[in-house]
Design a protein that fits this description.
The chain has three helices and ten strands, in the order αββαβββββββαβ. A hairpin with a 3-residue loop joins strand 3 and strand 4 (about 80). The strands form two sheets. An eight-stranded antiparallel sheet has the order 3-4-8-6-9-2-1-10. The chain is of the alpha+beta class and about 200 residues long.
Length: about 200
């Protein structure tokens, strides 16, 4: 009899404790990051719908990981790619091969499309479609790049500063690897902007 009572109490206690467990990860203090370049600032909203990529990008920004890295691959009417720590050195041949030493599980969402202005994670050709731990690209094709949908994780979008993206997309590049002939360096910081216009987001 006592055993049954104890088990019943434990069951009730377990249910009660379970009710206080968060159903999902809480939203971060800020979803906004600013990518600062000599061509202007790019403000990006990071989706709650891709929490692993969001948390990782915010973490790297707070650690100043991106500061001094470059947009090392630029293709007009397609995308600008950056975030590789190798781009800080003087060897252009290793750009695109670096990262923080880990990858991120894919968070591919069929509702999130490669529209103009989205930020997505670069990756190598792995079957799980895991993302680079730091490299990213911003789509600068007005029609988007739908052929990339469901293949790469889109984790945010530009809410201001596409003018800077366009200027970067027009810089002179090497024909062999699409690397800008002059480094396009960046610094990235987490920001708070209560006046930010989020009305046009495809998803949050």
């Amino acid at each position: 009899m006592k055993t049954k009572i104890i088990l019943t109490l434990l069951l009730i206690l377990g249910i009660s404790l379970g009710s206080f467990t968060p159903a999902h990860k809480e939203a971060p203090e800020s979803n906004l990051v600013k990518i600062k370049t000599e061509y202007g600032d790019i403000v990006v909203y990071l989706y709650n719908a891709t929490p692993k990529h969001q948390a990782n990008f915010l973490k790297l920004a707070k650690e100043k990981f991106y500061n001094g890295t470059t947009f090392h691959r630029v293709i007009k009417n397609f995308m600008i790619q950056g975030g590789d720590p190798n781009s800080k050195d003087n060897d252009p041949n290793n750009d695109g091969m670096g990262g923080p030493g880990y990858t991120i599980d894919a968070e591919i969402n069929p509702l999130i499309k490669h529209k103009y202005g989205v930020i997505a994670a670069a990756r190598d050709n792995n079957p799980e479609k895991k993302s680079s731990g730091s490299q990213f690209y911003i789509v600068n094709n007005k029609q988007g790049t739908p052929f990339l949908d469901n293949n790469y994780t889109v984790f945010g979008e530009v809410i201001s500063g596409m003018e800077a993206v366009e200027l970067i997309s027009n810089v002179a590049t090497s024909p062999g690897n699409n690397r800008p002939l002059k480094d396009v360096k960046m610094t990235v910081e987490v920001i708070k902007d209560p006046k930010a216009n989020l009305s046009g987001l495809q998803i949050k």
